[in-house]
Amino acid sequence: MKKKLCYFVNSAWYFELHWLERGIAALNNGYDVYVIANFVDDAISNRLTALGFHCVNSQINEKSINPFAFIKGFINASRILKGINPDILHCITIKPGIISCLWAKYHKTKLVYSFVGLGRVFESEQLIFKILRWLVLRLYRYLFSNVDCKIIFEHREDKRKILSLLGVKEEKAKVIDGAGVNISYFSYQQEPKLTHGIILFASRMLHSKGLLDLIKAKRILKLEGIDCTIQVAGIIVENDDDGITLGQIEKWHAAGDIVWLGTRDDIRELIAGANIVALPSVYPEGVPRILLEAGAVGRACVVYDNGGCNSLIKDGYNGYIVERKNVKELAARIKALINEDDDRQKMGINARENIVNHYTSEIVIDKTLQVYEELFQR
């Protein structure tokens, strides 16, 4: 009988974007793979089902902090999990994580918990998130000490922070660097001839991702006579206080601050058409996929000194790390990359080498499957 592996994540799109390769590898290694997520329509469900996954709609609202909605989601998820009865439950993101920890404790199920960045619950200073953090930390301390689990982090800083907060034993934790990147698809490509700097910003449209700081840096450079274009691609995030509205994006586009490209599925081509990739984010990141893909294609990156960004970017080697919210330094680093062709291109070559050596899909898949096998052998 096949071993049942169940992924439990907030959003179906997130699984398809960040976890699909690992899920397919599990299928190919003989697992019966289930995906519990909020499937807002049939499109993703149909694609995953065609690949061999069993898809179940959790109907959990990832943005809601209503306790009654959480209880309803917990009851529904418990029914789903009871029907599946997984051998390994792999949870990703905080709501599925809490539900999965509770389920695993009371049903003696082996658990993998992936922290893909700490998110606002662990980092925000808003009162509601401080209260949630207090509750979540106490719940995690109890559950992680009473569950047969492996806790996965995308970078060492998150591991250090969470282990210190929870008092979890080192042997329960493991770092798997990022989501991996397909280096055959994202192959190295020479950058276009620089007539003026083309900077790509690709992300969910959240204020905390740093687009406004990048615009301010461009304005500084314009005053210094340095021409550059910020190409912006990404997803508009609705019903989120941190979200940038489409109206604001369109104002920046009309003013010439950015070139708005909308939501795109040709990110490889966008990276190849740029000279620099920038992500001046203060969001509590895992290892951002755009930086992995940019490195694979061979582009220098400029980032803020932030979590998963500075775990991938080495200052002066494959890009630049800038002090958070220091727009003048951000402008200066972009200026240096635009003006110094040899340095920028060398950083791009270094970026590709770093990805090949440490961040490929094959490396991440092998380490993930190893975690599953180790749990089965215990």
Task: Describe this structure as you would to a colleague.
This protein is α/β, with parallel strands linked by helices and 378 residues long. It has 2 domains: 4-180 and 360-377, 3-Layer(aba) Sandwich (Rossmann fold); 197-358, Rossmann fold. 48% of the residues lie in helices and 19% in strands. The chain has 16 helices and 13 strands. The protein has helices at residues 12-18, 20-28, 42-51, 67-84, 94-107, 119-123, 127-144, 156-166, 211-223, 246-254, 267-272, 289-297, 307-312, 327-339, 341-358, 361-377; strands spanning 4-11, 32-38, 54-57, 88-92, 110-115, 149-153, 173-175, 197-205, 228-236, 259-262, 276-279, 300-304, 319-322. It has a 7-stranded parallel sheet, sandwiched between helices. The chain has a 6-stranded parallel sheet with strand order 10-9-8-11-12-13, sandwiched between helices. Helix 10 links the parallel strand 9 and strand 10 (259-262). Helix 12 (289-297) packs across helix 15 (341-358). The mean pLDDT is 90.
